[in-house]
Amino acid sequence: MELLHSATFPSKQRLLIVVTIAITLFTCIPHVYSFAEDPNFLLKQQEPPSQTSTIPKLQNGDVTTHENCDIFSGEWVPNPEGPYYSNTTCYAIPEYQNCMKYGRPDTDFMKWKWRPDGCEDAVPVFDPLRFLELMRGKTMAIVGDSVSNNHVNSLICLLSQVEYPVDTSVVPGYNFKRWTYKTYNFTIATFWSTFLVKSRPNPTLPRLTDLFDVYHDEVDERWTTAIGEFDYVIMSSGHWHFRASIYYKNRTIVGCHFCQLPNITDLTLLYGYRRAFRTAFDAFLTLENFKGVLYLRTFAPSHYEGALWNEGGDCLRKQPHQRNATQDEMTVKLHKIQLEEFWRAEKEAKKKGMRLRLLDTTQAMWLRPDGHSGRYGHLPEASGRSDCVHWCLPGPIDILNDFLLAMIEREQDKGSLAQVL
Fold it and tell me: What membrane topology term does the record carry (predicted)?
């Protein structure tokens, strides 16, 4: 550095050396700082996660919570920047949700975002960095059926823009999985519970392979005994309740849904749906020392048109419904039951100091008949019905995680008093 101050050293050369040193310092210091903060930083730079450059950022790092905004009332609007991952950049897409792999010709269904009424920025595009920072050192359980698994796969794909999780499952198979994000010490677990209460395939009528025994007064202990340790629990149930079922109380048959058996009253699936949610909520309310948050995610409707699902029904639409599109009668009834049972349980939860929240996603999902796997969940020559229950990835189901992050933001802002109005 003495040369820089020498009166005999040429001034132009001194200037060149100063500029060179400054550029070098400004280039190296950020990497040194990042390495100090995260020892895996350099490794991440050598093996970057997919589509890191496309991660959406919240402006100025600010989070707008809009606690008085009903984020679940709104409409879908075009989003030319979407999607934020693809079937080639995310490994977590099951075959039957990998629509682009199996030849879906249109891509517009991936280019929409949800705009809540009167508070457009209340549900920003999912920010995986923000989500993982909020989840640092925490755990999340997702309880339900294959649509819940669809939700989990969407979350893993969105987070893959930052980090891929490690499979830390302790039970073989896909129904009870655990994934851990090592950098953030964040674990996601899935609990397979199609009816939310105790159930089993009926063993005495093997010819009726789709007949189930459902015990509406008995909890499904596979999830009710496990969720007490979790910080966030998302519970949902829907399409399995349409299946033919025999209903029990005190281990005695009280009726059924579409069982077509002699001397058994058909109580309809509406009876079974209400009883299942009431028992599930009651199980939650009896948990001791549960300090987490339970979210009810409401029914995600199917969109079969032209015929029933097993009679050639299909979902061929290429655009979302307009916001005023009328829901089918069964979706309205099931959603109403969920809300009634939620509000009943929420009153008791408040008395106990427990946190019960509503992810009221039914309307947003109802407006997306264009986003199902349909015939693109298998090779064209393969036989099989169109799937108008599950959703393509990427696709409309990604909105569930936009909603989830918005709700968690509110919880962080207002603590135990946070609640969607």
Answer: Single-pass membrane protein
Clarify whether 146 is annotated catalytic. yes
13 shares its domain with 136: no
We report the CATH number of the domain holding residue 127 as: 3.40.50.1110
Q: Which of 213, 387, 398, 402 is catalytic?
A: 387
Catalytic residue list contains 11: no
Per DSSP, the residues of 34-70 read HHHH-TTHHHHHHSPPTTGGG----GGG-----TTS-
* Catalytic pick among 146, 199, 245, 302: 146
**Mean pLDDT, 10 residues at a time, over the chain (421 residues)?**
38 43 40 34 35 39 57 96 94 94 95 93 92 98 97 97 95 89 98 97 72 97 96 97 97 95 95 98 96 97 93 94 94 98 98 97 98 90 86 98 96 58 38
Q: Which domain holds residue 393?
A: 59-417
Which of 257, 303, 335, 390 is catalytic? The answer is 390
> What order of strands is seen across the sheet that includes strand 139-144?
166-167, 178-181, 186-192, 139-144, 232-235, 293-297, 355-359
Evaluate whether residue 400 is within a structural domain: yes
- Take residue 264 and report the two structure tokens written for it: 């058994």
DSSP-derived letter for residue 320 is P
Decide if 266 is catalytic.
Answer: no
